[in-house]
Design brief:
By secondary structure, this protein is of the alpha+beta class. Helices cover 24% and strands 22% of the residues. Strands 1, 2, 8, 9, 10, 11, 12, 13, 17, 18, 19 and 20 form a twelve-stranded mixed β-sheet that branches. The protein has a three-stranded antiparallel β-sheet with strand order 5-7-6, covered by helices on one side. Helix 14 packs antiparallel against helix 15. The longest helix is centred in the last third of the chain and has 18 residues. The N terminus is likely disordered.
């Protein structure tokens, strides 16, 4: 495909971050439609809550980070940087013991909650216990359940004792890998037996981030105001207005009419429309993520690896990627993207071959009948494909997948759900985590570490982790143990090569392309420097 020179330059600009700006309109002066100090953001879903320990979607994590902080964050290249902690623990600085079982953190002494109470080690310990509390509807406990105990030596010193070495721990524990949790105020929440339905979830009046909660107009927006006492200094913005815009076409029109300054993560299908909007920059962020289709192995049909392989062979990943991403994404082999250090280029996924796909189905007893539907012992091969109601890419993708599988004899019904229902925790009736699907169009964004064990190990099935495919393999568990218990990068790289090869054989998911987050921002918006896990990590530095 021929690209305009500006687009090609954008793609070549770097691994971590690339930005494309429309020519024309950008001057030294602020545009007339920009309200100085007020950032207007559109997101495509309304959060179920704004408690950072209950976040289940990237939108919820994005909003929570304006108000709450982790111990560690990451810079735009994915390198760990301290926030509530004063330093990133390493073996070189004495923060990690030689055996890898003890991690020491020192907290900043000048951080206070918005009610004036100091942020201390007690808050971290209580937040950890809240993640492990079986009564709380947290999405994942991965990494947190590897902690044997935590000693709070004083208000600013924590010593974490692990049950076993856990290589991704520093990037996982209140940091930016796997499930990014922020620290919450113990003095506000410790009175509750669980935090699932407490006032704090919809009105967090006590926080420690650069912005403070001001209001939530249900079905409309959340409003935040600058925290003038933020420990990094007063934010450059006065306020942030986060609007809920469930239709992506509406979001594009809001950018076009300058009613918003930032359209958060519009699906890649909106790219042709957004790139034509004057005075708008498209920022691309390489993330540790993918787009694909997940199988529910709890379904007896999909529990058959031959059927999964047949479906993988029926899906033309090259065509799907070209059609649905407008040439802005790279075809995936397995889950780990080519820019991350653990990637193995020798691993290849099953090739597109619909003839082979039909033969594989027949090998498992599914024979195509006169009506074009495969049957086994008189039972038609029918599957339910779940996806969301919002994302334009998923609407088109669902139709293409449905048609491709129909060609090999699989009758696919597509069902669309609101995002908050689709991704709600298992205890809240979520479709994904509750296993209420056969196939699911699955966009995934992980953290800064290649750790993918919460998706693919036997003990991480919901509600304990993100293994929503219900995939369980002794060989996979062994490869993951090696990747998780050895701190040497060379050893971990070998382990992840084994992980990727197993995925290419077992196919719990079919990975279409590696994710690049698309962010549409006004040319007046300054300081935007998203990391691979969350865009709002440095929101105190933003200005407009």
């Amino acid at each position: 495909m021929r690209m305009r020179a500006s687009t090609l330059a954008c793609l070549l600009a770097g691994v971590g971050l690339a930005a494309c700006a429309k020519s024309g309109g950008e001057t030294n002066g602020r545009r007339s439609w920009t309200e100085p100090g007020v950032l207007r953001i559109a997101v495509t879903e309304e959060p179920k809550n704004v408690n950072p320990l209950l976040a289940a979607t990237t939108v919820e994590g994005f909003i929570d980070r304006f108000m709450f902080e982790p111990l560690l964050s990451a810079d735009p290249r994915g390198n760990a940087v301290p926030l509530l902690a004063t330093a990133v623990p390493t073996q070189a600085n004495g923060g990690i013991s030689r055996d890898g079982l003890t991690i020491r953190y020192h907290l900043r002494p000048n951080v206070r909650w918005s009610d004036g109470v100091p942020v201390t080690s007690r808050d971290v310990v209580w937040s950890w216990r809240a993640v492990l509390n079986p009564n709380n509807d947290v999405v994942s406990r991965h990494g947190y359940d590897d902690v044997r105990s935590i000693d709070a030596l004083d208000a600013q010193t924590l010593v974490v004792h692990l049950k076993r070495p856990f290589a991704p721990f520093v990037n996982t524990f209140f940091a930016e890998s796997d499930q990014p949790y922020d620290v919450v105020p113990a003095h506000v929440l410790s009175r509750y037996a669980d935090i699932n339905r407490v006032p704090f979830n919809s009105e967090p009046v006590v926080s420690d981030g650069p912005f403070l909660f001001k209001g939530w107009r249900r079905g409309d927006r959340i409003q935040l105001a600058a925290n003038q006492s933020f420990f990094e200094g007063p934010p450059k913005l006065r306020s942030v207005d986060i609007q809920f815009v469930p239709n992506e076409d509406s979001g594009v029109n809001l950018m076009r009419t300058h009613a918003i300054d930032y359209f958060y993560q519009p699906s890649i299908q909106t790219y042709p429309s957004l790139r034509s909007v004057p005075d708008t920059r498209i920022v691309w962020v390489n993330v540790n993520g993918f787009e694909g289709v997940m199988f529910n192995l709890g379904n007896s049909v999909l529990g058959d690896p031959i059927v999964r392989r047949a479906i993988a062979a029926a899906l033309d990943k090259a065509s799907l990627t070209q059609q649905l991403t407008h040439g802005q994404a790279t075809i995936a082999t397995e889950d780990l993207p080519s820019w991350i250090w653990a990637f193995d280029p020798s691993v290849q996924s099953i090739r597109f071959d619909p003839v082979l796909a039909a033969k594989l189905l027949a090998r498992s007893g599914w024979i195509k009948g006169p009506d074009g539907i495969a049957r086994r012992q008189g039972r038609p091969l029918q599957l339910l494909l779940a996806t969301d109601t919002v994302t334009a890419t998923h609407r088109s993708e669902s139709v293409l997948v449905q048609a491709a599988l129909r060609r090999i004899g699989i009758d696919v019904e597509v069902k669309y759900y609101p995002i908050d229902v689709l991704y709600a925790p298992q205890g809240m009736g979520g479709i994904l985590h509750g296993g209420k699907f056969d196939l699911l169009l699955f966009p995934w964004v992980a953290g800064v570490d290649p750790d993918d064990s919460s998706q693919f190990t036997c003990d991480n099935m919901p509600p304990h982790g993100y293994n929503d495919s219900r995939y369980c393999s002794a060989a996979m568990d062994a490869a993951q143990r090696l990747a998780l218990t050895r701190y040497e990068r060379a050893v971990r790289k070998i382990a992840y090569s084994r992980v990727e090869r197993l995925l290419s054989i077992d196919n719990p998911l079919v990975f279409f392309w590696w994710q690049r987050s698309q962010e549409a921002i006004s040319v007046d918006f300054r300081g935007f420097a998203p990391n691979p896990a969350v865009e709002s990590w440095n929101a105190w530095q933003w200005s407009i």
